[in-house]
Amino acid sequence: MAQSMAPPAVAARGTAFADALTQLRTRVEERLRQFEESPPTPAAVYTLEKELKAAFDEAARTILVETFHRREPAAKGQAAPRIRYHKQTYRINKRTKAEIATSFGPITLWSWLYLCTEDGEPGLHPLHVSLGIGVGAATPLLAERVARVSVDHTQTEVRAWLLREHGLRWSNDRLRAVLRGFRQALEPFMAALQQARLVHWLQQAEQSRGRQRPVLAAGRDGIMLPMRRGGYEEASTATVSVYDRRRRRLGTIYLGQMPETKQTTLSQTLTDLVRGVLRAYTGPVPRLAYITDKGSAPEAYYRRVLKKMKHPRDGQPLAWEWVLDFYHVCGYLGQMAEALFGADTPAGAQWFAKMRRWLRERRQGAAQVARSATQLLDHRKMTKAQRAAFWKAYRYLRRHRRWMDYQGYRRRGLPIGSGVTEAACKTVFTQRFKRSGMRWGRESGQVILDLRVVYLSGIWEEAFARDLAARVMPEPTCAPDAGRRSGSRPVTRAAIPRLAA
């Protein structure tokens, strides 16, 4: 769409809307007439739909420009001489133009630039703020769409999509700026919405039918990511799930953190979320389960945080049960079977299946499995490597058997596998972060990671709606005429709408 170098005049803006609708109607009628005069074919339908979309996009751009320009006076004497925004005062300077990215394509928007009264502070376009145009000069709808596409696609794919669907040519820097701004806008609402979602599921679980108590289950795990400065480092993810009285999972909240020493940020975020849920939930305390493998970070978190955690409302100790992932333990059973019977033997497969059943269904199943393994040991000839593998698995089983009461866990309605958390490693990280040739920086990776956990947790739409509703608008500090006669006499709120008429 061609744009004039001069700011649009008031009279020209008055007819732009009607002209756009007239041109749209003429263009659509002409294109429909051409289509009706020729035989219908798939190619003709494709062309018709493509040209209709282009016509509507062009009209929509003109209408947006007309509508946006009418939100601010064209004459300097009619604009507020000073405004107040985020405890800063700004004075009017001059009218400037900017290219704004919309879902219909780029538009040129003229608006008043206000300079901060404090030296060194950046200027402000109040119209941009009022329209929700933030970092990257994108409208709220387009910014939300770009962020949503970026959850699943690379920046190269997103830029190609922007050009193909919206006629926008963005650099990597502009795309990253929009994503940072969008993530930053959602961040204040993430924790509260995640907490509210878990409380809602706990209320549903309490009202469900079944013999078991509802369960609040937490888990965490790590995953190696390729980093931009070379090598791999361990990122971390955590999940918090709710199970009803029939052991059905009602939903899961996801957390994620780029590589960090001792995973302190993830630990604090998970702790705050669990405590916030227990504080907000007024029903009976659910069963509390912590399902992980035996990594150093999961174990340290259990011993330092969960084992000592008290209820945030009454200060009573909380009975967290640490469950070692059943399928992780079965991996050690497989190593023992291979050492005793050899790799891929029918006897080894039969013993492994039997021991896995014992471990899951028998009381003190881990001790019975260990006893069976030692009884077989004296009757088997093993290599040095097989014997080392056997004793490594055996020691793991004996050392951690107190957290392998799977028969008791199942009787109390607790999950015995960390499949939810293992799946989180795949859905949160692998599907987006471990594609061919990818390398990540901590800051840029955390932006995408936060967007992914918001989406996967099911709070995307609500978080975005809260952001739009909570944005602070600039406030005029004096009326236009009054400002030029007597300085900065305050105006009432009732007068503010008339200033932008």
Describe the 3D structure.
The chain is α+β, with helices and mostly antiparallel strands and 501 residues long. 54% of the residues lie in helices and 15% in strands. It is built from 18 helices and 9 strands. Strands 6-5-4-7-8 form a 5-stranded mixed β-sheet, with helices on both faces. A 4-stranded antiparallel β-sheet has the order 3-2-1-9. A hairpin with a 2-residue loop joins strand 2 (88-102) and strand 3 (105-116). Helix 4 packs across helix 6 and helix 14 (419-433) packs across helix 15 (442-456). The chain is elongated, with a radius of gyration of 31 Å.
Q: Can you describe this structure in just a few lines?
A:
The protein has 501 residues and is α+β, with helices and mostly antiparallel strands.
The amount of helix comes to 40-55%
Instruction: Evaluate the radius of gyration.
Output: 31 Å
> In DSSP terms, counting alpha (H) and pi (I) runs of 4 or more, how many helices?
18
The structural class is: alpha+beta
Q: Write the element-wise H/E pattern from the N-terminal end onward.
A: HHEEEHHHHEEEHEHEHHHHHHHHEHH
Chain-averaged pLDDT: 89
**End-to-end separation:** 26 Å
> Approximately what portion of the residues adopt beta-strand conformation?
15-25%
Report the strand count.
9
Q: What about the largest sheet? A: 5 strands, mixed
